[in-house]
Automatic annotation (TrEMBL), chain A:
Keywords from the UniProt entry: Nucleus, tRNA processing
Keyword tRNA processing among record annotations: yes
Organism the protein comes from: Polyplosphaeria fusca
Protein name per Swiss-Prot or TrEMBL: EKC/KEOPS complex subunit CGI121
SUPFAM superfamilies from the UniProt entry: PF0523-like (SSF143870)
Automatic annotation (TrEMBL), chain B:
GO process terms (BP): tRNA threonylcarbamoyladenosine modification
EC number(s) reported in the record: 2.3.1.234
The protein's name in its UniProt record: N(6)-L-threonylcarbamoyladenine synthase
Positions contributing to substrate binding: 135-139, 167, 182, 186, 283
Highest taxon listed in the record's lineage: Eukaryota
From TrEMBL, chain C:
Function field: Component of the EKC/KEOPS complex that is required for the formation of a threonylcarbamoyl group on adenosine at position 37 (t(6)A37) in tRNAs that read codons beginning with adenine. The complex is probably involved in the transfer of the threonylcarbamoyl moiety of threonylcarbamoyl-AMP (TC-AMP) to the N6 group of A37. BUD32 has ATPase activity in the context of the EKC/KEOPS complex and likely plays a supporting role to the catalytic subunit KAE1. The EKC/KEOPS complex also promotes both telomere uncapping and telomere elongation.
Source species: Polyplosphaeria fusca
Quaternary state and interactors: Component of the EKC/KEOPS complex composed of at least BUD32, CGI121, GON7, KAE1 and PCC1; the whole complex dimerizes.
Alphabetical list of Gene3D superfamilies matching this protein: Phosphorylase Kinase, domain 1, Transferase(Phosphotransferase) domain 1
InterPro entries cross-referenced by the UniProt entry: Aminoglycoside_PTrfase, Kinase-like_dom_sf, Prot_kinase_dom, Tyr_kinase_AS
PROSITE patterns: PROTEIN_KINASE_DOM, PROTEIN_KINASE_TYR
Swiss-Prot/TrEMBL catalytic activity: L-seryl-[protein] + ATP = O-phospho-L-seryl-[protein] + ADP + H(+); L-threonyl-[protein] + ATP = O-phospho-L-threonyl-[protein] + ADP + H(+)
BP GO annotations: tRNA processing; tRNA threonylcarbamoyladenosine metabolic process
Protein kinase domain mapped to chain residues: 28-327
A single GO molecular function term of this UniProt record: ATP binding
Protein name: EKC/KEOPS complex subunit BUD32
Lineage: Eukaryota, Fungi, Dikarya, Ascomycota, Pezizomycotina
Length: 203, 353, 327
């Protein structure tokens, strides 16, 4: 059994989002192969935890994936592939998977299941992932507050071209005048740009 | 009280006689005559020819109006004429006649702002008490709201007037001037169905139409039977674009711009009424769009018909008489005309709301 | 004559006003209307998490507009607004973050800014300090019993007000520096962020986050023109929020409502921005003119070329094409 946390997005109450986190994953290659084979039992968004900055980061992509699927404007095959696609600033689906999806070497993993059907309960997800992901389950936190704990902030910064955003000291004039920008503030600042970039993507 | 109104700021010469029986009673229209100078096809009306037209017709028209009204000269209290804005030469013709009659008949003289004439006539006819006014004609494009004894301009065109834009668009497409270009564009538009993209220029409460004319020049070269098939403009579905489509697109675009700035003014002021005046106000599609917007805001739209929204003498007589009732007159030595005369320059002493 | 519509426009009661079907996934049940301007409807709701309050801007289809044209305009304007906001955030400017949106359906979800508008704060302050119109200094005649103490206190408070104006000048200067003009810079579109003492995740539920001083372009500008205060919203959080003027001035200046913003570096556009702001300040109180000059002094030092804009502002003022319209 993996630890699963379930989030209900405002305005999409019928489609809860189940989130699990694993570290020291040893069978990423297997999981990836299941995606490539489009095995319906493995319809998840498997994300490289190093690329997820914060709960807002993850949820904004999840919201848009859900939304695009619901209003029939999705660019990819499933809601889960749409989630991976929505995370990337550009419009290339393959590139989205390479950057945000898992690779054969991924050891820190975030697995997201959008519950499009009512029978997809937290219990089902916890059992299935617990059985098939070889790794140590971690708690994403009640409000997914731990989702960003394995993030490589530098990589995320590079991905979204956020040089200088939220960075203390060498910030340009006017940026965070109040100084004393903590790690939290830095992530908050980055996140506030990223949600915008994700929203604007493709338009 | 009875006023004679003389209007000739553009190509219409209008003579009107109106009576205000008492402050609480509606005005009575005694006569409303008009004669229009129609320029040859492919041309616009020029000051010299227009002035000549007014000179030729004005005495005849005044005589006819007085006869039709059944009033005696001694019944007339004031002679009102258009002081501006408008074309210089035609304005001068009418002012000269007004001064002459004032001296001849020993009557007071009153110079009236053409735009204020439109507004007051529209209010009187429609009973809209305090509307946002969209004033659209060959020479003017303004969104106006009343506040503290002024008709304040909230938004206006940054370059050419809407009527001017329509006229020149029509000329580019070789659409006839008779009875007037805007009418013909409206008829063509009824048969159009494809929306062609035209510049939509709204900045805050102001609009701009010059970009549309530039686009029209390019489009005109790509429509019509005289253009080679392979050079003709086609829709995404491969249909040939017609002059009718261009007129349709023009109307949909420019009227949407006008309605948008009018709506913004309504939101500012919190007004629920909108009144369209001026020659372009007779366009049914503009009226329809305005009504839809007003209804969407829980308000109502008002417009007048051709007799009153197209330039006329009655509106000058009516607005003049309102001002005359506040004991204002124009001394002979100040009875000039002016081509530029802003709506908000007039002190509206007859309203106290 | 009244223009005909499907039903009688004259009797279209106010109850039928603003009935718009919201786009998916929004329903009116969990939305609170903040304003109903000409551009669209503005709601308060939550986004992504139940603890994240947000502003939802919705531009409903205009029934009078050709559907193709309507879609084109709605999309272009929402995109322009979102792009400007993201650009500002990238540059470290204080504006609401873009949380989500759908151009086809005409909505945009923005970060909720907790705080008060500069307009509200000025009203409170000008009243409290009893500022003289002549020179913007506190009016001595309104001094209390112990003259010395009151004077010193007033001086200190006054200094805070001037500091706020410097922040305004700096914020607008930065905006112009990065190539953005706001398009509707009124004191109501400048907010002072209420500094949060707690993390956002522990913010009170939406029930407690009441709208305050947030209005659309149109209503605000009109209020500014008339020199009126903003309409008061019912405020459930009055107790949780400090009404001490000193605290009101502490936060960062946040610019909001970029619905008319453009990306431009033209001095003319920048000067018009400042002109609108100046009109908004002077409409508040005669004393605010001196405050505005302080903001402009700082603006002039903010970026290369700012002094040129201030010269242009003098031209715009003189030209005063808009004078009759705004005044």
């Amino acid at each position: 059994m993996a630890t699963v946390r379930t989030i209900v997005l405002p305005h999409y109450p019928s489609y809860p989002i189940h989130v699990c986190m694993f570290k020291d994953v040893s069978n990423a290659a297997f999981l990836r192969s299941q995606l490539l084979e489009a095995n319906p039992d493995f319809d998840y968004a498997f994300l490289d935890a190093a690329m997820i900055l914060s709960p807002q980061h993850l949820l904004s992509a999840a919201f848009l994936a859900l939304h695009c699927t619901q209003v029939a404007r999705a660019k990819t095959r499933t809601a889960h592939s749409e989630l991976v696609f929505r995370l990337h600033p550009n419009n290339n689906i393959g590139e989205s998977y390479r950057k945000f999806g898992i690779s054969d070497k991924t050891s820190a993993l975030i697995a997201v299941k959008l519950a499009l059907k009512p029978e997809t309960t937290a219990q089902v997800v916890a059992e299935h992932l617990g059985e098939h992901v070889k790794g140590e389950s971690a708690d994403p936190g009640e409000a997914l507050e731990h989702v960003g704990m394995w993030c490589d902030v530098g990589k995320v910064r590079k991905m979204y071209k956020l040089e200088g955003v939220g960075e203390p000291k060498k910030g340009k004039r006017g940026a965070i005048v109040n100084g004393n920008a903590s790690d939290m503030d830095e992530r908050k600042e980055m996140e506030s740009v990223i949600t915008g970039i994700i929203t604007l993507k493709g338009s | 009280m009875i006023a004679l109104g003389l209007e000739g700021s553009a190509n219409k010469l209008g003579i009107g006689l109106i009576s205000h029986p008492s402050p609480n009673k509606p005005p009575i229209i005694l006569a409303n005559l008009r004669h229009t100078y129609i320029s040859p096809p492919g041309t616009g009306f020029l000051p010299k020819e227009t002035a000549a037209h007014h000179r030729e017709w004005i005495v005849r028209l005044i005589k006819q109006a007085i006869k039709q009204a059944g009033v005696r000269i001694e019944d007339i209290d004031v002679i009102c004429y258009t002081k501006g804005p408008g074309m210089g030469a035609p304005l001068q013709v009418v002012a000269l006649v007004a001064r002459t009659l004032s001296l001849l008949w020993k009557k007071s003289l009153l110079g009236v702002n053409h735009c204020v004439g439109h507004i007051e006539m529209g209010r009187a006819i429609t009973h809209a008490t305090n509307p946002i006014v969209l004033y659209v004609s060959g020479g003017n494009t303004q969104v106006i709201a009343y506040s503290e004894n002024r008709y304040r301009i909230f938004g206006e065109t940054m370059d050419i007037a809407i009527g001017n834009c329509i006229d020149r668009f029509a000329r580019t497409l070789m659409i006839p001037n008779d009875p007037f270009p805007g009418y013909n564009v409206e008829q063509y538009a009824k048969r159009g169905k494809n929306l062609i993209e035209l510049p939509y220029a709204v900045k805050g409460m102001d609009v701009s139409f010059s970009g549309i004319l530039a686009a029209a020049d390019l489009l005109a070269a790509q429509v019509g039977d005289t253009v080679a098939e392979d050079k003709r403009l086609k829709t995404e579905e491969g249909e040939l674009v017609t002059k009718e489509d261009l007129c349709f697109s023009l109307q949909e675009t420019i009227y949407a711009m006008l309605v948008e700035i009018t709506e913004r003014a309504m939101a500012h002021v919190g007004s629920k009424q909108v009144l369209v005046v001026g020659g372009v106000g007779s366009n049914l599609r503009l009226q329809e769009m305005m009504a839809l917007m007003a209804r969407d805001r829980g308000g109502s739209g008002f417009a007048t018909d051709d007799r009153y929204c197209i330039d006329n003498g009655i509106m000058i007589a009516h607005a003049g008489l309102l001002e005359f009732s506040t004991r204002v007159t124009t001394p002979l030595e100040e009875s000039t005309v002016t081509q530029r005369f802003r709506t908000d320059d007039v002190y509206v002493g007859w309203r106290n709301d | 004559m009244a223009l005909p519509t499907d039903d009688n426009a004259d009797t279209a009661s106010s109850t039928s006003t603003y009935v718009h079907k919201l786009p998916e996934p929004f329903t009116t049940s969990d939305l609170v209307v903040l304003t109903q301007g000409a551009e669209g409807l503005v709601y308060r709701t939550t986004f992504l998490t139940p603890n994240t309050p947000c502003v939802l801007k919705y531009r409903p289809p205009k029934p009078y507009r050709h559907p193709t044209l309507d879609k084109r305009l709605t999309k272009a304007r929402l995109l322009a607004e979102a792009r400007v906001l993201v650009k500002c955030r990238r540059e470290g400017l204080q504006v609401p973050a873009v949380l989500g949106g759908d151009w086809e359906d005409g909505w945009l979800a923005l970060e909720w800014v907790d705080g008060r508008t500069v307009r509200e704060v000025l009203d409170i302050w000008v009243h409290k300090l009893g500022m003289r119109a002549r020179d913007g200094k506190p009016d001595e005649t309104t001094g209390g019993a112990s003259e010395g103490d009151v004077e010193a206190q007033k001086k200190e408070q006054e200094e805070r007000l001037w500091e706020m104006m410097r922040k305004v000048g700096r914020a607008v200067g930065r905006l112009h520096e990065i190539g953005v003009c706001h398009g509707d810079l009124t004191t109501s579109n400048l907010m002072i962020r209420h500094e949060r003492s707690t993390q956002p995740s522990s913010q009170p539920s939406t029930e407690n986050v009441r709208p305050r001083g947030r209005q659309t372009v149109s209503t605000m500008r009109e209020a500014a023109m008339n020199g009126e205060g903003p309409p008061q919203y019912p405020s459930a959080d009055a107790t949780s929020r400090s009404n001490e003027p000193e605290d009101l001035l502490e936060g960062a200046i946040v610019m909001i409502d970029f619905g008319l913003a453009t990306q431009t570096v033209q001095d003319e556009d920048r000067a018009v921005d400042l002109y609108v702001l100046e009109r908004a300040f002077t409409a508040t109180h005669p004393a605010a003119e001196h405050l505005f000059q302080e903001a402009m002094r700082v603006y002039g030092e903010t970026f290369k070329g700012a002094k040129k804009v201030l010269k242009r502002l003098a031209d715009v003022r003189l030209r005063g094409r808009k004078r009759t319209m705004i005044g």
